[in-house]
Specification:
single chain, 248 residues, alpha/beta, 4-stranded parallel sheet, 4 strands
Amino acid sequence: QHTAGAHGSQWRHLLEDERVTRHFRLIAYDLPFHGKSLPPDGRAWWAEEYRLTRQSFMAVPVALAKELELDRAVYMGCSIGGLLALDLARYHPDQFRAVIGLEPALKVEGNLEELAGFWHPRVSNEYKASVMYGLMSPASPETRRRETVFVYSQGWPPAFLGDLYYYIEDHDLREEAAGIDTGRCAVYMLSGEYDYSATPMHAETAQQAIAGSTYERMPGLGHFPMSEDPQRFIEYLLPVLDRVRSMA
C-alpha cells in the first residue's frame, strides 16, 4: 500500500529485487483516484468531497486478497499504509498471515484544517512534493529522494488532503490495540529515524500496546524507506520476510 497522495510505483525497487521476489509475489496496487486507478463510472465523483475513511481503505486490500484468491496474504504498507496495517490486524486478522507496517502509529495527532494548503487553487502540487522531501533522510541517495518527490508531483490535487483525513482523523487504535491477536495475524513494524510525521516514538508506543508484535527503528531512513533508499531498507525487511516464511 502506497503513501498518501501517491501510487504504487513507490514499490518499484522491491519489485525489481529478486531477494524479495524469489519467495513472494508482490502486488503494488493504486487506490481509487490514485495513479492508474481512474475515478468510478456511474456517479458524479467530481461533485463529492474526497475523503479516505478507515472502512473504505480497509476494503481495498481485503477485496483484492479475496478476488485474487490469495492464501492468507502478507500485507505491507507505508505511512497511511503503515497505519492501515494495524487496522487490518485488528479488524481482519484472518484475511492476512501477517502485516508489516512502515511508519506506523496508533494515532497521529494533527489538525486537518491546518493542512488545507495541500489542496488549494493557489498551492501547486510542487508544494506537496517539497514538503515530502523534508520527511526523508539526508543520508538517503539524492536520486532516490528526487524520484520520491517526482511521484508526489503527479497526484490528483484533492487526493493527498483526502487521504490525510484517514491519517489524522479516522485512524485511532489507542483503545483497540490491546485487542490485536498476533497469534492470528503477526504484526511487524519498522520506522525510519528521520520521520517526524509518524515518528519512531509512535511505533514504539504501538509495539508496547500490541502484545507479541515486533518493532525495529531504521537508522539513516526517513518516512519513505522503500523509495528513498530501497537498498538500505531491504536490509531491514529481509529478516522480517524470513520470519514470515517460517510461520506455520
